[in-house]
Amino acid sequence: MQDVISSNEERMKKSVASLKEGFATLRTGRASASLFDKIRVDAYGEKTPLNQTANISIPEARLIVIQPWDKALITEIEKAIRSSELSLNPSNDGKVIRISIPPLTEERRKDLVKQAKAQGEQSRVSVRNIRRDGNDELKKLLKDSKITEDEETSASAQLQKLTDSYIDQINKVLEEKEKEIMEV
Questions:
Q1: I want to staple 50 with a disulfide (CB 3.0 to 4.6 A). Which of 35, 39, 141, 174 is the partner?
Q2: CA–CA separation, 123 vs 174, rounded Å?
Q3: What distance in Å separates the CA atoms of residue 63 and residue 84, rounded to the nearest whole number?
Q4: What are phi and psi of 98, to 5 degrees?
Q5: How many Å apart are CA 84 and CA 38, to the nearest integer?
Q6: Maximum pairwise Cα distance, the chain
Q7: In the chain, which residue ranges form alpha helices assigned H by DSSP?
């Protein structure tokens, strides 16, 4: 019975962590190195994460400087950034790539908030599905006479408390991201 609850709690934790990961790559009006987490550069015939081919720094709130460890990769890095869905325009001086983060328009901010809300809802649905799976497992244990009805009821209540707590966490993370996006 505790196995069911702890395994479902693990899955719920992963759901929240996945949401946070997804939010890290959602662009806001500020410069952030995590924007480039999903960008892969064609380096030496292989798709390599950008942060493994260059140093990414943020000297100012709206400026990102990318310094490739191998100068030969500068055009490949630029190409990878341009072809990403970030809508950023990198420029290079032969040594480093500079990316100026333009302020977001009101319309773009609202669009990003919609995306964030959709991701948040996906996470909530995921957590509820995990609860449903857990309840199904408990019912099976009850049917197989491995636990009593009282134990099943108690475990279901615990599962519901966990679900509520993780949905609250998702809501808090979403609220913070909305504030960050709407910041001018």
A1: 39
A2: 10
A3: 18
A4: -110, 135
A5: 9
A6: 71
A7: 2-24, 74-83, 106-143, 149-182
Alpha-carbon distances, residue 85 vs 81, 88, 100, 108, 179 (angstroms): 8, 8, 16, 13, 22
Q: Which helix (H) or strand (E) holds 184?
A: none
What is the C-alpha end-to-end distance of the chain, expressed in Å? 49
- Look-up: residue for tokens 């055009």? 75
Dihedrals phi, psi of 56, to nearest 5 degrees: -110, 125
pLDDT tens digits along 59-73: 988 899 999 999 889
- Mean predicted lDDT score pLDDT of the chain: 90
pLDDT confidence of residue 88: 83
Which residue carries 């913070």 as its tokens? Answer: 176
The arrangement of strands across the sheet holding 63-68 comes to 54-60, 63-68, 97-100, 91-92
pLDDT for 166 equals 96
pTM for the predicted model, two decimal places: 0.75
> Angle, to 10 degrees, between the axis of helix 106-143 and the axis of helix 149-182?
170
CA 167 to centroid of chain Cα atoms:
16
What is the spatial distance between Cα 136 and Cα 29, in angstroms, rounded to a whole number?
44
